[in-house]
Amino acid sequence: MEPELTNIIECLIALAAAFIAYLQHRKATTATAETAHAKQTTEKVLNFFDQTDDTVTAAPPVVPGRSFKMNEETKNWITSDRTPEERESLLRQVAEAEGKRLGVYTISVPSVWYHIEYGIPSGSGGSGKGVAR
């Protein structure tokens, strides 16, 4: 092979290797930034739920789904002994609140109301018969 052709091929290989290295560096930098952001978000959520940490006074803007979604057993409990219309209304209200990622909300039908905190009927917010307070 001629020396010029060999030099051109070597330059193309070096250019391809440099481009691949650039892409790998960019991917690593993005992954590092995403990991740091996820870690900060996780710390905010953990601090919010830590009862001994009184420095956090507001919920983080995004709370993981498992911390505010109502489980099936609780849904069955709050809808037991309800008419089909009331059952459907309560479940729709829960779905709407979860769709908005709300941690604290009240659901009600004419016969009963529940104050829900992070997917659990709250003892402090209450529940009762009739229209919610």
Explain what this protein looks like in three dimensions.
- With 133 residues, the protein is an alpha+beta fold.
- 53% of the residues lie in helices and 13% in strands.
- It has three helices and four strands, in the order αααββββ.
- The protein has helices spanning 3-49, 72-79, 84-99; strands at 104-109, 112-117, 120-121, 127-129.
- Strands 1, 2, 3 and 4 form a four-stranded antiparallel β-sheet that branches.
- A hairpin with a 2-residue loop joins strand 2 (112-117) and strand 3 (120-121).
- The longest helix is centred in the N-terminal third of the chain and has 47 residues, at 3-49.
- It is elongated.
- The relative contact order is 0.08.
- The mean pLDDT is 82.
Question: What is this structure, in a nutshell?
Answer:
This protein has helices at 3-49, 72-79, 84-99; strands at 104-109, 112-117, 120-121, 127-129.
Low-confidence stretches: none
As an assembly, this protein is single chain
Question: Strand portion, in percent?
Answer: 5-15%
C-alpha end-to-end distance: 90 Å
Q: Count the beta strands.
A: 4
